[in-house]
Amino acid sequence: MVKLENLSKIYQQDIVGLRNINLHIKPREFVSIVGQSGTGKSTLIKLLIAEERPTEGRITIGGWDITNIKRSQIPALRRQIGVVFQDFKLLPQKTVFENVAFAAQVCGESNRKIKRIVPSALRIVDLEDKADRYPRHLSGGEQQRVVIARSLIHRPKLLLADEPTGNLDSFNAQEIVDMLLRINDFGTTIILVTHNSEIVNSLKKRVITLDNGEIISDKKCGKYTL
Amino acid sequence: MFSSFFRIIKFAFQNFYRNFWLAIVTITILVVTLFSITALIILNVISTQAVKSIEDKIDISIYFKTEAEDIQIIKTRSELLSLKEVKEVNLIDREQAMVFFKERHKDDPTILESVEILKENPFNSVLVVKAKNSEYYPEILKVLDKEEYNQIIEKKDFSDHKIIINKISIIKTKIEKIGLFVIAFFALIAALIVFNTVRIAIYTHRSEIKIMKLVGASNWFIRAPFLVEEFFYAIISFLILIAVFYPAIDFLQPHLNYFLEYDFDLISYFKANFALIFGLEFLTIIIINALSSFVAMKKYLKA
Ligand SMILES: Nc1ncnc2c1ncn2[C@@H]1O[C@H](COP(=O)(O)OP(=O)(O)O)[C@@H](O)[C@H]1O
Ligand SMILES: [Mg+2]
């Protein structure tokens, strides 16, 4: 699903984002990426959605070499990838339904299709009954679940979650992770960036540890070791 | 595709009322720019007309001696007509001159009486010569200085008006220079304000824009609402211009006729040239808007 070959990202003034990353993630995998802050986890996510360009190496997603992707091709790439970011919030003046629908509208989906796909996305995150609420009337965990529902609107084969549990207590955090597991069960490849050792340890899935822009460990059933 | 079109329109209108005062300022400066362009066009048209109306009055009147024979006068006329500088030559013969004189003094019985007393018609034939261009008169006068003409011509009357035409031309060039400067000034301000409006609209919608980008909305879909919004401003300011323009011209017209001394219908002029004048003005405003929107988007809407 995702193949990274000798991938490096050096920012201006020689700041290392990532250095010589080789990584292969298979379809339907659930991969956690851990590491201290400033070790290049978000850089990796940004490279995958072509928000940043690699300095060296090659990125292939689902067989598509996006290393030198054209600007006009980026929307097509992003419609195949769901993203859940910490700072990628809901629009406060829109209801839950409208927030999810917005993502479909701006990509040119028809109103009829939107009426069908938004409820089904909300059903996956168990929020069908709160479709008419505004974000401020939802808990932090519920808000994050709406964000996940929004990221599912194009039925992505790959879901990238960058610290989706960052601001949540452990109960809500666990709830989010359960959602991600469920989505993974439907067949979507998940890349989860997190700080939360409790979660990583309970997952018993593949864990990749980054340090200073390099992979220092990649374990099939890993633990959070820092 | 159809729903995208409506969504873009909807987003554009949201931009409009979310930054309502900014929209008002933008429209105002666009209107001012349009008015400065239109005012310059009006001044130009009027001054051109003024010069033309004075140039129309220039002519040479050739008064023939009483002994000049009709055949000589007609020969002179056709010789003048054969000159390439001459536009027209009108003959006012003795009888007509008499009629004109009586007509002109019809309210003055003593003058009329004094003419009636005379046995012979006291008037002589006159040729009125108009040149194709006011520059040609010296040439024509030179031709008339020939010996053969001297014998039959009593006097030549040349109404020049050169000084006043020169004055109007100088004023006209000055108005044009100042006008162009004023237009450039307002156009620049308009460009800056449109730029700023788009910048602020982008800023107010930064969350939406971020979401649109991350969920894969196409670049044109993200940009189109800003362009539509600016296009909408251009149309509104243009309609305001048209709405104020014709009544203003209506008001101006009587004063104009007095000034130009003969009927020149500004409204019909602007109606006849509507597409050209207002089309160009609209194009100017659209270009200003599109350019500064593009620059603003290029700067603030990076991938
Ligand atoms: N746009 C950028 N310009 C310059 N340096 C950056 C930029 N983004 C991230 N960095 C640097 O790259 C390194 C990795 O950052 P990041 O990938 O955000 O780390 P993490 O997500 O693991 O905390 C850090 O040293 C950070 O300061
Ligand atoms: Mg990060």
Q: Descriptors for this entry?
A:
heterodimer; A: 226 residues; alpha/beta; four-stranded antiparallel beta sheet; B: 303 residues; alpha+beta; Alpha-Beta Plaits; 2 domains; 9% strand; binds adenosine-5'-diphosphate; binds magnesium ion
Commentary on this structure:
The complex is a heterodimer of chains A (226) and B (303). Chain A is of the alpha/beta class. Chain A is 32% helix and 26% strand. The longest helix of chain A has 16 residues, at 170-185. Chain A is globular and about 45 Å long. Chain B is elongated. Chain B is of the alpha+beta class and 303 residues long. Chain B is built from twelve helices and four strands; from the N terminus they run ααβαβααβααβααααα. The mean pLDDT of chain B is 84. The structure holds adenosine-5'-diphosphate and magnesium ion. Magnesium ion is lined by residues 41-42 of chain A.
Please name the two chains that share the biggest interface, counting residues whose Cβ lies under 8 Å from a Cβ on the partner chain: A-B, 30 and 19 residues
Shape of chain B: elongated
- Describe the main β-sheet of chain B briefly: 4 strands, antiparallel
Bound molecules: adenosine-5'-diphosphate, magnesium ion
Gyration radius of chain B, in Å: 32 Å
Q: Outline the low-pLDDT stretches of chain A.
A: none
Helix count from the secondary structure assignment of chain A: 7
Q: Helix content range of the residues of chain B, please? A: over 70%
End-to-end separation of chain A = 28 Å
Give helix and strand order of chain B, one letter per element, not per position.
HHEHEHHEHHEHHHHH
Beta-strand percentage range of chain A: 25-35%
Oligomer category = heterodimer
Largest sheet of chain A: 6 strands, mixed
Terminal CA distance of chain B reads 23 Å
Mean pLDDT level of chain A: 93
- The low-pLDDT segments of chain B are none
User: Which overall shape of chain A is indicated by the principal axes computed on the Cα atoms?
Assistant: globular
User: What helical percentage do the residues of chain A reach?
Assistant: 25-40%
Structural class of chain B: alpha+beta
Sheet-strand content of chain B, in percent, reads 5-15%
Please state how the strands of the largest beta sheet of chain A are arranged side by side. Answer: 6-7-8-3-9-10
